[in-house]
# Entry
Amino acid sequence: MATEIATRTSEPVVTTFGRDALVASGVVKAFRSDNKTRRAVDGISLRVQRGEIYGLLGANGSGKSTLIRVFSTLLIPDAGDVRVFGLDVQRDELAVKRLINRVSVEASFFKKLSAMENLVYSGRLYGVPAAEARAKALGILRRLGISSSRVNEPLEKLSRGMQQKVAIARAFLTAPMLLLLDEPTTGLDIRSKREVQTFVRDLRIEHDATILLTTHDLDEAERLADRIGILHDGRLVAEGTTEELRARYGASGLEDVFMTATGRRLEDADAPEETTP
Amino acid sequence: MIATMGTQLGLAYAFVEREIALSKRYWAWEIVWLVYGIVTSLSVAYIGLAAPAISGGQVDDAAVSRFVLYLLVGTIAWRFLGIIFENIGEVIAWERWEGTIEYTFMSPVPRLTHLLGMCAATLVRALAFSVGILACVALFVPVDLSHANAVSAIVLLGVGALAFVGLGIASAAFPLMWTEKGLQMAYIVQAVVLLVSGVYYPVDILPKWMQLLSVISPATYVIRGMRAALMDGADLGSLWPEVWPALVVGALSVPLGLRLFIAVERYAKRTGRLKRSG
# Structure
C-alpha cells in the first residue's frame, strides 16, 4: 500500500514500506588505496523497523561510518541494495534525502557562523522557514543544555561538546523520519553524553523517528538501542536485542557478547580510522 | 509548477543568505580583496598615464586618456569575470575546507538549485566589488565615460557572466575529482584565460597558437565589446559580432559544466571523495 509522507521541501514523498524504515541487502563497499583494495563493508544485510532505535556496535575501522555514508546517499555501494521507507537510495536519491538526516562524529559547520546562523541555513535547505527554524532551534538547544545567550556566538568559540550538541539540533530541526547518528556522543563528557542520550530517547517517542545509531560505547548501545548489530571487519557478525545476544552467546554483558562474536575485546579492536580516500 | 519553482528559489536563497552571513563574518578578508582589487586596478591605470614617459615619444592627452580607459575597462571587466570564475570554482574547495561538504550534498537540494544559489550570490559579490573598484579608481585617475553606451556594457557583462558561470561550474568539479590539486588546476585555467583574452592588450599581438585559444575564450569577446561600448559608445547592433560568440559559449558551457559536475559528483560518491578533509 502506498503511503504519503509529508516533507518540507516540495511535494510529499509517496512510498511503500510497510513496517520497515531501512532495508539493506548485501551491501558491499570497497576502497582502493596504494594499489590495495579493502572492503570496508562486506555484504551487509540488515533491516530496521519504523520507530526502532537500532545500534550498530563496532570498533574503529569496522565499517560503521562507511555504512552510514551509504545509507545517507554520500557513497554509492559497489553491490547491494538499500531502501529507505521503500525508496531506493540511488534511484530515488532526492526523495530519500528529504526523509533522513545524519549526525557525524565531526560536528561539521561553518565555523565563523553562529550556531543560529548555521541552524537557520540548514533548516532552509530542508524547507524550514527561518522564523520557524529559529524558534525550534532555541527549544532543541535549550533541551540539550545550551543557553540562548550562546547561540549567536561563532561556533568556533563553543566547546567540542557544545558543537556536537548543535550538530544534533541540526539533525532534529528537520524532523527526519530516519535519523542516522554516527557516534554522536564521541568526545562528550559524561553529563553531555547523558543529556544527548535522554534527548534521543525522548525525541524517538515524540516524533516517531527511526534511529540508526553507530557507537563503540557498549553502555550507550545497551542504554539506547532496541536491537543491536555487531560489525566486525565490514561484516555483521551478530544481531538481536541485548537479551537475545546475551542468551545466544551465554554472556553476562554486551562486552562478553562482542568478544565472543568477534574474538576480540572492543578496546583492543579499536584499530586506526577507516581508510576511505 | 509555480509552487515548485518557488520552493527551488527558497532553497537557492539559503546559499545566498549563507554567503552574505559568511561575508559579514569574514569582513576583514572582504576588505583585503577590495583593497587588493583597487590597488591592482589603479596600478594598471598608472601604467596608462605613464605611457608618454615610458615610450619616450610624444603622446597627446587624448591618446593617454584613451589608453587609460582601455586598460581600466580590461582590468575591471576581468575583475568581474574573475570573481565569478573563482567563487564558483571554489564552491567545493571552500566547503571541503569548512568541513560542511557532506551536509550540503546530503541535503535535499537539487544540484542545479544549489549551484544557481551559489551563482546568484557570486554575481551580487562580483558586481559590488567591480562597482566599488571603479568608483575608487575614478577618484585617482580621470575616467572619461562621456561616450559610453551603458546598456551595451551591461548586456555584455551579463553575457560574460553567463559564460563564466558555466566555466566556473566545470572548474568546481576539479576539487571533487582531485581533493588536493583540483583547486590549483582551476586557477591554472583562469590564468590561461587571462593571458589569451586581451585583458590588457589586443589579442593580435599574441603568437598565432595563443590567438587560437583566444577564439574560444568568452572573455575575448566580452572585453573587446566592453571597450567598444564604453570607449566608443557602440550600440548592441554593432556589438553583435562580440555578443553571439560569448552567448554560444555560455549556452554550451552552463549545461556542459552542470553535466560534468553531476558526473564527477557520482564519481566522488563511488570513490569516497566527498569525505571531509582539510
Q: What stands out?
A: Residues 2-271 of chain B form one domain.
